Amino acid sequence: LAKTTQPISMDSYEGQEVNITCSHNNIATNDYITWYQQFPSQGPRFIIQGYKTKVTNEVASLFIPADRKSSTLSLPRVSLSDTAVYYCLVGDIRSGNTGKLIFGQGTTLQVKP
Amino acid sequence: NAGVTQTPKFQVLKTGQSMTLQCAQDMNHEYMSWYRQDPGMGLRLIHYSVGAGITDQGEVPNGYNVSRSTTEDFPLRLLSAAPSQTSVYFCASRPTGPRQETQYFGPGTRLLVL
Questions:
Q1: How far apart are alpha carbons B3 and B17 in whole angstroms?
Q2: How far is residue B52's CA from residue A10's CA, in Å, rounded to a whole number?
Q3: Can you spell out the DSSP letters for B87-108?
Q4: What's the Rg (C-alpha) of chain B?
Q5: Closest residue by Cα to residue B37 from B101, B102, B111
Q6: Chain A: nearest CA to B5, how far in angstroms?
Q7: Beta strand pairing status for A9-13 and B54-57?
Q8: What would the mean pLDDT of A45-67 be, rounded to a whole number?
Q9: Are strands A70-75 and A61-64 parallel, antiparallel or unpaired?
Q10: Model confidence over B26-51: pLDDT tens digits?
Q11: What is the structure's pLDDT at A97?
């Protein structure tokens, strides 16, 4: 599985847009990019997933450049409740034999009032 | 659906004791996994299973055993607890198919080994 690199921490203020970038230089052709959110004392929760270009849902947007060696999670107008740890994962989710999900250290986002 | 359930929520063990952490899901998911999370750290994969009767090792399998006799259950057994196994343990499951966006995590089991 491709290794990912993210900033350890980020600070933001309420109402701002937050962009968290993840590097995955060794991403394979069949790998997808998935982001998870984790609040203290809870298990991670799926946010968004993509393969290339741009994906948007009600929570976030995911930008993936053509070379796919990085991706950016964009959170619009964050609130205090968005304070959490954000994990970027890459892996071949299409394979019927792949159960592995390898998490890195994640990015701790602190939203301030 | 109850989703992914884990028991117990909290457990204290003495060094050398054994115990089993229970994980169950009622969503008929093929894939199940166990992770541990140490304070201030990310999740590390212990073992995973791609279906009943099939298990494989993750990043940190030593000291843990798993079995998958049914689709619903994926227990994690600590053979001889050590203080280094003090952690929060999360179980997760996801369905088959091309997308994994519906992966679910349980609430976690906090384990303290004295």
A1: 30
A2: 41
A3: EEEEEEEE-SSS--TT-EE---
A4: 13
A5: B111
A6: 11
A7: unpaired
A8: 93
A9: antiparallel
A10: 999 888 999 999 987 888 999 999 88
A11: 47
Residue type, A105: Q
Residue B113's alpha-carbon distances to B33, B35, B37, in angstroms, are 22, 17, 14
Q: How many CB atoms lie within 10 A of CB B28?
A: 11
From the list A34, A45, A96, the residue facing B100 with the nearest CB is A34
Closest by Cβ to A49, choosing from B35, B101, B105: B101
pLDDT 10s digits, A76-108: 999 999 999 999 988 776 655 455 677 888 999
- Residues of chain A positioned with their CB less than 8 A from the CB of B101: 34, 46, 48-49
A100 lies within 8 A of chain B by CB: yes
* Pick from B42, B48, B96: CB nearest A96: B96
Tell me, what's the pLDDT at A105?
A: 82
How would residue B16 be classed by pLDDT, with cut points 50, 70 and 90? very high
DSSP 3-state assignment of B83? helix
CB pairs < 8 Å spanning A and B: 66
Burial class (CB in 10 A: 0-12, 13-18, 19+), B59: middle
